[in-house]
Amino acid sequence: MKLMDPIPIRLLTHNIRYATNSPFKGEELWHTRKSRLIAELRFNTGHCSESFICLQEVLHEQLHDILSCLNGNRNTWTYIGVGRDDGYQAGEYSPILYQSSVWQLQSYETVWLSKTPDRPSKSWDAASIRILTIGVFRHSHSKKTIIAMNTHLDDQGSKSRLEATKIILERISHFMSKPDGSTALPIFLAGDLNSEQDQEAYKVMTSEESPMCDLQDLIPENQRYGDQKTFTGFGHERSPPKRIDFLFLNHHKPSAFTRNGTSVNEARRWSAEGYGVLANQFDDGIYCSDHRAVVGDLFLF
User: Fold this and answer.
1) Is the CB of residue 130 less than 8 Å from the CB of residue 148?
2) In this structure, what DSSP letter does residue 244 have?
3) pLDDT digits (tens, 9 = 90+) for 236-261
4) Using CA atoms, how far apart are residues 21 and 23, in angstroms rounded to an integer?
5) Cα–Cα nearest to 275, from 253, 243, 236, 301
6) Do the bridges between strand 145-152 and strand 131-139 make them parallel or antiparallel, or are there none, so unpaired?
7) Residue 46 CB: number of other CB atoms within 10 A?
8) How far is CA 199 from CA 36, 83, 157, in A?
């Protein structure tokens, strides 16, 4: 079987910490943090034009800053997403950034993770409104299609995290259930689940009944880069660092072929190639965020 040239895709997810005027101890204001964070995004996606950047806790002014600096005079990066509070610009975004010259947006939607998912709302024990951003993208050159999803679950309500995860899995199942029997599309989910691996959201997302798997688990431990934990705080928290930020892919099934010894999923036509957690503090002691970015590399066939 002759293979097409694989399309390298880099996924980067990062909770950037919203631009507060009342910073925690050890936290710098956004105008100090932003150059460090934007440099992270630029450096870690600049080599791969097929990259997707998925962010959480993004206020409208922060989104403007990030896009302005990433684009410079080129105007290549754009985004999908809305402010969660009004479906427009109010409140935090969970945006997906991409280069429009590389990916053609076919459709997108915002799902509120509540009993009324079609409008700004919260349910169960959620302390805040929570959303799921979904985009359907077609690669300009190869015409391959991919489903991108980004979310940020509640930090207070265990019930809301559980129910939100069920809503997300329902949307994933919708894209995987094709009545004509044709191949399901590749899907990735990025986000801050506010759930550790032994807690409700992660356990449901990676259960045997779920179509999703943790990208980290597809990469041998000795080939992963960086730290394990993704939430650090700003150095003065009482709780220890924890892993709550993730990249998920829909399951790899038995392969029809291999590429250089690497298993390739023919049905969904992608392979996991790398996984890493990036640093969020350097020599100057300033944290770019209280979370570390998570990065994953894939090949799409």
Assistant:
1) no
2) -
3) 988 899 999 999 999 754 433 344 44
4) 6
5) 243
6) antiparallel
7) 11
8) 32, 27, 12
